[in-house]
Write a structure and sequence with these properties.
By secondary structure, the protein is an alpha/beta fold. It has eight helices and 17 strands. A seven-stranded parallel β-sheet has the order 7-11-6-1-4-5-12, sandwiched between helices.
Length: 305
C-alpha cells in the first residue's frame, strides 16, 4: 500500500501538523510520499519524495490549481490512500479529489483499528469503523489523533511540480475569528469542566477553583452544547486550542477532539473517577476522585494560603 500525504502551507509557513500525517503513515507501516504547495525555504523533515509546487506562483490555496497539481502527482505515484488534515484546506480539497478520482472519502479519522479507519459519530459519543469499497480512498485525519513520539526527522527528495492551470477562486488572505469575551489562548492557567461535573450548578465549583488559582475557566464540548457554559470558553478542535502553563481537567474523559485542543499544556492535572479515562494518557497528574468532593476542599486550601 502506498500513501500520499498532503501537507499545508499558510501565511508563508509550513504547518507543523504535517508530522501528524507522517505518524498516520508510520502507524500503518505504509510507503509514503508527500505533496506540498509551499516554499523551498520551508521544507518538512521527511524521509521520502516531496512533490513541491511554488506557493508564490500557485497561491497558498487555489482549489482548481491545487486540485490539478495533486491529480498529476496522484497519476504519477498511484497511491492507495490520499491523506489530508481535517482542516479547512482538507475539507475543501479532499472532496474535490475524491469526486475527480471517483474514490471513497472517509473524513475525521481518529484511529486505525484492525486495519480500518475509525471515525466519531453521535457528537463523538460513539465510534465506528469504516471499510472503503473503492480501490483508492481519500482520507482526512482529525487534529491530534496521530502523533510522533519525538520531532520529525529526515531530508526529503524534492521533486518540483508545476501547472499552467488557472482558477476563478483566489485566496487573498486570512482573517482571524473575532474573540468575544475571554480569550483562553492567552490564559496561563485554565480549569475546565467536563460532562463529569454532572449538572450546570456544579460548574460553579470549577469557576471557584479557577479563581483561586488566578486563572480562567473553560469547558469541553458536551458542557458547551448543553448550554452550561458559553461557547467562547470551549476547549478543543471546535473551540480554542490552548497551551497554558497549568491545565486542570475536571470530569473530562478525554475525547480526541478535546485532547487536541489542550495536550500541549505545560502541566496537566486531570480529576476523574475513572482511573482508565483517556485523559490520563496526557495528564502529568491523574487524581482519581469525585470532583464534587475534591474541588471544594482543594479550593478552600488554596484560598487559605
Amino acid at each position: 500500500m502506498k500513501t500520499l500525504l498532503v501537507a499545508e502551507f499558510r501565511e508563508g509557513k509550513l504547518r507543523a501538523e504535517y508530522s501528524q500525517l507522517i505518524a498516520f503513515a508510520q502507524q500503518q507501516q505504509t510507503e509514503a510520499a508527500m505533496f506540498l504547495v509551499g516554499s523551498a525555504g520551508e521544507l518538512p523533515k521527511f524521509n521520502g519524495t516531496l512533490y513541491l509546487a511554488d506557493a508564490a506562483k500557485h497561491g497558498e490555496y487555489n482549489p482548481t490549481v491545487h486540485k490539478q497539481l495533486l491529480l498529476e502527482v496522484i497519476d504519477k505515484e498511484q497511491p492507495t490512500q490520499i491523506v489530508f488534515l481535517h482542516s479547512s484546506y482538507g475539507w475543501d480539497l479532499a472532496p474535490r479529489i475524491a469526486v475527480a478520482l471517483q474514490a471513497a472519502q472517509i473524513s475525521e479519522i481518529i484511529a486505525v483499528e484492525n486495519g480500518l479507519p475509525v471515525v466519531p459519530v453521535c457528537n463523538a459519543k460513539l465510534r465506528r469503523s469504516i471499510k472503503s469499497t473503492t480501490g483508492r480512498t481519500v482520507l482526512t485525519i482529525q487534529a491530534g489523533a496521530f502523533g510522533l513520539e519525538g520531532e520529525p526527522e529526515g531530508t526529503p527528495t524534492v521533486v518540483a511540480i508545476d501547472t499552467g492551470a488557472t482558477g476563478k477562486v483566489q485566496c487573498t488572505g486570512y482573517e482571524a475569528a473575532k474573540i468575544e469575551g475571554v480569550d483562553l489562548t492567552k490564559a496561563e492557567i485554565i480549569v475546565s469542566a467536563g460532562r463529569g461535573v454532572g449538572k450546570p450548578e456544579n460548574v460553579a465549583m470549577v469557576q471557584a477553583l479557577a479563581k483561586a488559582l488566578g486563572g480562567e475557566y473553560g469547558a469541553s464540548r458536551p458542557v458547551v452544547d448543553a448550554g452550561w457554559v458559553e461557547h467562547n470558553r470551549q476547549v478543543g478542535t471546535t473551540g480554542s486550542t490552548v497551551t497554558p502553563k497549568l491545565y486542570v481537567a475536571c470530569g473530562i474523559s478525554g475525547a480526541i477532539q478535546h485532547l487536541a485542543g489542550m495536550k500541549k499544556s505545560d502541566f496537566i492535572v486531570a480529576i476523574n473517577t475513572d482511573k482508565d479515562a483517556p485523559i490520563g494518557e496526557v495528564a502529568s497528574v491523574l487524581v482519581v476522585a469525585d470532583l464534587k468532593q475534591f474541588l471544594p476542599v482543594l479550593t478552600e486550601k488554596l484560598n487559605a494560603r
